Amino acid sequence: MKVDPALVPFKTLPGGAKMPIIGMGTFGSDSVSADTVASAVYEAAGLGYRHFDCAAVYGNEREIGGALAKIQKEGVRREDLFITSKLWNNKHKEADVVPAFEKSLKDLGLAYLDLYLIHWPFPNHHDPGVDVHARANDAKPFELESYLKVWRKLEDLVDKGLVRNIGTSNMTIAKFEAFLPHARIKPAVNQMELHPHLQQQQLFDYVVKSGIQPVGFCPVGSPGRPERDRTPEDTVDMEDPVVVEIAKKHGVHPVAICLRWAHQRGQIPVPFSVKQTNLLANLKTALGPQLSEAEMSKLSKIDKNCRLVKGQVFLWKDGQTWEDLWDLDGKIKK
Ligand SMILES: NC(=O)c1ccc[n+]([C@@H]2O[C@H](COP(=O)([O-])OP(=O)(O)OC[C@H]3O[C@@H](n4cnc5c(N)ncnc54)[C@H](OP(=O)(O)O)[C@@H]3O)[C@@H](O)[C@H]2O)c1
Prior knowledge:
- By secondary structure, this protein is of the alpha/beta class.
- 34% of the residues lie in helices and 11% in strands.
- The chain is globular.
- It starts with 9 loop residues before the first strand and ends in a 34-residue tail after the last helix.
């Protein structure tokens, strides 16, 4: 049975936009075709989803645009949809930002976006599907001036009414400290990896304290992620004994506990699936069951600091490790 979209709670962003507390992710992990993801988007809307997390680099915005057109033709109003897209790393030059945004808008078949994010804080491109050793020849570290030039373009898009909210992704506290004082329009959202085994409590608290809504990617631990994003040390959220025990008690799949934990903690998860039963089960977590304080407390203690999207392909110097991307000592790595 589908979910009435009117029953799905939402978060109100600083500008007043209502963002449903669960969205459908649309990254096919290099293994699911664009058409399959687009069909899943169409089915998801039929199940009650209204929030879709897209990005130019996922290579499927044109197909998803077809699904969105059909959804609207069949009666869903544009104002009831919440559509996100993201600026890819090879479009950070000042002259490239607006055309890249316009392409996403056109591909998605929309007159405006609800949210546009800078996908990564570096201009370091990689081709789809490359392994972790691939590096762009012109890769660079985060540079405040360059990032601000991109942000100014996003602010202009807000002024023109082409996007309702703008935001960041894959940021660190050190980068926020440098960037936020210069943002005329503050980011409404920060997208970050969040699941029970990567809780990022310090960054999460910083983002919330700054009035920014956290959105969690890989919310169920991304079991279908590409080979390049797997290491032998990675842990599996849905096999964690605490998650499994709570799931058994509530009679639900461990995935539902990961998502319920996300809702109650306050982040907006964007789980991906192309299976109708999983899409529906995930959406239903927005309605319950409530986890008790004791269960939330147990879940808060299973953090394993296990980052799945480590980002090796964005490194800019020989001899670096992926930790260098995440400013672990509180300073922006040069
Ligand atoms: N900003 C960024 O840099 C960034 C990075 C990564 C991801 N993202 C966004 O976040 C979204 C989600 O991340 P993700 O796709 O990597 O990870 P995820 O949502 O944690 O995991 C998706 C996987 O979980 C399985 N799954 C989903 N629901 C399930 C259920 N109820 N029961 C069992 N299995 C279930 C799916 O398989 P089935 O299809 O078989 O259900 C799929 O393989 C992406 O699609 C993308 O939109 C953003």
